[in-house]
Amino acid sequence: MTTKIAEIGMIGLGVMGRNLLLNMADHGFVVAGYDRDADKVAALATEGSGKKVAAEQNISAFLNCLKLPRAIMLLVPAGAPVDAVIAELLPQLDTGDLIIDGGNSHFIDTARRTQELAAQGFEFLGVGVSGGEEGARRGPSMMPGGSKKAYARVQRLFETVAAKVADEPCVTWLGPGAAGHYVKMVHNGIEYGLMQLIAESYDLMKRGLGLNNAQLHEIYRKWNQGILSGFLLEITADIFAQPDERTGRDRIDLILDAARQKGTGMWTSQEAMQLQVPIPVIDMAVMMRDLSGDKAERDLLASALDSSSRPAPEGAEGDQQDLIDALENALFAAMLLTYVQGMALLHKASTEHGYDLQLAEVAKIWRGGCIIRAALLDDLWSAYSKQPQLAHLLLDRRLTQKVLDRQQDLRRVVSSATEQGIPVPALMTSLAYFDAYRSARLPANLIQAQRDYFGAHTYERIDATGTFHSEWQRS
After folding, report:
1. Annotated catalytic, 47?
2. 187 vs 357: CA distance, rounded Å
3. Which range marks the domain in which residue 257 is found?
4. Same domain for 280 and 400?
5. From CA 118, how far away is CA 110, in angstroms rounded?
6. How far is CA 5 from CA 34, 69, 74, 268, in A?
7. Quick one: 294 and 420 in the same domain?
8. Residue 314 catalytic?
9. Which of 184, 206, 364, 402 is catalytic?
10. For residue 99, which phi and psi values (nearest 5 degrees)?
11. Which of 7, 56, 123, 191 is catalytic?
12. pLDDT in tens, 101-127
C-alpha cells in the first residue's frame, strides 16, 4: 500500500478487530491492520484480498500506512494489554494523533487514559462495540465517548459501518471522558440480567414442564415473533435446534452448566452500589454465574439434599400451555424491568460523572447491532423522547402499564417455580423490585430503629425534620 493513505488503523486482529476492519473496507475505506500474530495478519490479508486493506506485522510499517494525523483503533483485551499497547505506540506518534479503545475497558481506566493522553497532546476515544463477530462484520452498535472534536474525525466512518435501523445508524457521540465505555458497561450488565431471565424460563420449561428441546425451540421461535422479539430470543431458539457434530445429540445437553464472566456485569453491580442505585436483577445474574461455577459443591449438595424430591412436572396439556403463556408475559415484564434498572443507573451516572447522557439516544442506538437489541427498546426510546429528563422509566405510565398488565402472570410463574423447588432468583427479584417501587411505605423504619438501638446511628421522623436518637430500653 502507498504510504500515509489509510484512514484508520486497527491494532488487534482477532475476530472482532479483523471483522470490524473488513466491514470498514467493504464500505470503501482505506484501512490498515497490525498484529504480532503472523496467522492473524495472514488471515486479514487473505480475507481483505481485493479490498483497500494493508496487513502488517511490523508496527513501523503499519504506522507508515496511516494518514496524518493518525487514527488508530485498539481491539485488544481490557486492562494491562491496553496500557501496554498505548505505551508502545506513544514514542512513535505525533501530537494530535487519535487513539481509539474499542475493547471492553473499565470506564475508570478510560477516564484515566483520557486525562493522561490529553496531557501529552493526544486525542483519545473510549468506544463500546457490541454485536459480536457477526455485528462487527455486518454492522455493530457503537458507543463512543470522549472529545466531541475527536469523534468528529471518525464520525462518518462509524456511521457508515454501524448497524442501521430505519436507515439511522446505531452510533452517536454519548458524552465526554469515559461516557462510551460506561454505557457499554451498563449494556453488558443488562445483557447479564436478560440472559439469566431467559435461562430461568428454560429451566422452568425443561424441568418444571418436562419439555424436550424440539418443543423449546418452537416456543422460543414463536416468542421471538411477538412481544419478546429480540436478538437473545432469536439465538436461544436456534440453540435448541443445533445437533452436536461429535455425537449427533442435541448440543445444548452436552454443555456444562457452569457459566463464567469477564467482569463487565460485576463492574455494573459495583458501580450501582457505589451510586446507590438498585439493580437487583443484574446483581442476581452476576451472583448466579458465580454460583453456577461452584459445580462440585452443587453436585454434593444435590445428592445430600435430595434435589430429586421436587414435584413432578405439570402434565395436563392445557395446564402446560397456560403456564407457557404466563411465562411469556412474565419474561417480558421481567426483561422490561431489567432495562428499567440499567437506565436508572445511567440516569444517575449522567449527573454524577458529568456525562450529560441523552437516554433517548442510548435506547435508539441499542435498537440494532447490539446483543440486547429488542423490539421493546422502541418503547424506551419513545418514553425518553417525550420526557428527556425522566428520572425513572416506571414513571412513564405506558411502560408501567405493560408491567401491570402482566404482573399476575409473573406472580404465577414465581409461585409455580417455588412450589417445584426450581430456582428463579432473577424472576423473583424482578417482581420484588416492582412491588418495592410501588410501595409508598417500606419496613425501613424498623431498620432505622434497629441501627439507632445498637449503634446510636440516629433516625429520621415522619413528623419532624432533622435526625434523632433515642435511649432504647430492653423489655
Report:
1. no
2. 14
3. 184-437
4. yes
5. 12
6. 15, 11, 19, 40
7. yes
8. no
9. 184
10. -110, 135
11. 191
12. 999 999 999 999 999 999 999 999 999
